[in-house]
Amino acid sequence: MIAVLLALAVLPAVTGAFDQPFLLDLALRVMILACAAVSLNLILGFGGMISFGHAAYIGIGAYAVGIPAYYSEYSGYIQLPIAIAAGALFALVTGFICLRTKGVYFIMITLAFAQMAYFAFVSIEEYGGDDGLVIDQRSEFPGIINMEANLEFYYVVLAFLLGALFLVYRIVNARFGMVVQGAKGNEARMQSLGFDTFRYRLACYVIAGAMAAAAGWLMGNYNYFFSPEMMGWTRSGELIFMVVLGGAGSLFGPVLGAIVFILLEEMLSGATIYWPLILGAILVAVVLFARGGIEGVIAALERKK
Amino acid sequence: MEWILFVSQVLNGLQLGILLFLLAAGLTLVFGIMDFVNLAHGSLYMMGAYFCVTLTPLLDSFPLAVLAAIILTFVLGVVVELVVARHLYQRDHLDQVLATFGLILFFNGAVHLIWGAEGNPIRLPDFLDGRVTLFTDIEIPAFRLAIIAIGLAVAVGLVWLVGNTRMGMLIRAGASNRRMAGALGVDIKKLFTLVFALGAALAGLAGMMIAPITEANIGMGDDILIVAFVVIIIGGIGSVRGAFIAALLIGMIDVMGRSYLDDFMKLFMNNQSAETASPALSAMAIYILMAGILYFRPRGLFPPKNR
Question: Which terminus of chain A is more solvent-facing, meaning fewer CB atoms within 10 Å of its CB: N or C?
Answer without folding.
Answer: C
